[in-house]
Amino acid sequence: MSQESLLSELNDRSREVFRRVVETYLETGEPVGSRTLTRALSEQLSAATVRNVMQDLELLGLLDSPHVSAGRLPSQRGLRLFVDGMMEIDSVTQNDREMIDQTIGNDSRDTGALLDRISTALSSITHGASLVLMPKHEAPVRHIEFVSLAYDRALVVLVFADGHVENRLFTPPPGQTPSSMREAGNFLNAMAEGRTLSELRGHIAREIAARRSELDALAADLVESGLALWDNGQTDPRLIVRGRSNLLDSEAADLDRIRVLFDDLERKRDIVEFLELAEQGEGVRIFIGSENKLFSLSGSALVVSPYMNADRKIVGAVGVIGPTRLNYGRIVPIVDYTAQLVGRVLSGRKG
């Protein structure tokens, strides 16, 4: 049944009971009992009537009952219905707005420092873990070099035409030699001039397919590894994570779940998927529980919004992750405001 059909199944009484259950759960994190709801409802109903309504909502898959007599919690489906069709979005408070605005600072040309401050502020304001995906550096590439450090470690050095330099450690394919690394570097440099990293990636993929017979197999593997590095590195410096300790503040925190989330945040390989999720549409997106494809933690929620450059191209994203009982009505406008602010600031810069 679609969300629209499900909403139409609910009469006014069922809607109010459901809304009160969700709002109380988001506030307290605890199962909600019929007696608690009876005191909060606008309509005078008996506890028995409220229990019957809650049982009907459970049959519809909107509520869960962790224990027979422990009250009800919204299910993942119920939270999704509430967020999409019933949630009231607050305005960003003046205090929150000022805290975010103050992150701009005087070193406005230092994108990394700016986004680090924004990530810290976002975590502090929302009491969740904040995630900021920095924009990729899109100046033309001047030079690429691979440096062997050990049998299982190598360094790739990227020098851009605007003077920006990136160094990244990675694990090379087995059997690499200094000679194959030089060959891979020469191959890349022969076609890198005047191309951005994105342009170079597509061009080299086509070149590798057309000229594979001309490349030593090990060098070809290294080229592909080097290309993939900026998309699928084990640790991506483009991702800023702040405030993980906030996830432990809840009295009802499930430490095993939190540990799994911490592990995911530390070692997530496909971090570019974070941006891909945001690219599916402008504005804030909310991922609840197993809808959250980024993390193995099913009990988490992610509120994320992309930000754009001056050309209206999505170049990064900001978000907040926490338990499913996030205060969505407050956090959604904060994430949205932050993403718009980042876009405006970046659009006003050169390079």
Automatic annotation (TrEMBL):
Family matches, as SUPFAM superfamilies: GAF domain-like, Winged helix' DNA-binding domain
Keyword entries, A-Z: Repressor, Stress response, Transcription, Transcription regulation
Matching InterPro entries: GAF-like_dom_sf, HrcA, HrcA_C, WH-like_DNA-bd_sf, WH_DNA-bd_sf, WHTH_transcript_rep_HrcA_IDD
Pfam annotation, one family: HrcA
GO molecular function: DNA binding
Alphabetical GO biological process terms: negative regulation of DNA-templated transcription
Domain spans labelled Heat-inducible transcription repressor HrcA C-terminal: 114-332
Family: Belongs to the HrcA family.
Function statement: Negative regulator of class I heat shock genes (grpE-dnaK-dnaJ and groELS operons). Prevents heat-shock induction of these operons.
PANTHER family membership: HEAT-INDUCIBLE TRANSCRIPTION REPRESSOR HRCA
NCBIfam families reported in the protein's UniProt record: hrcA
Protein name: Heat-inducible transcription repressor HrcA
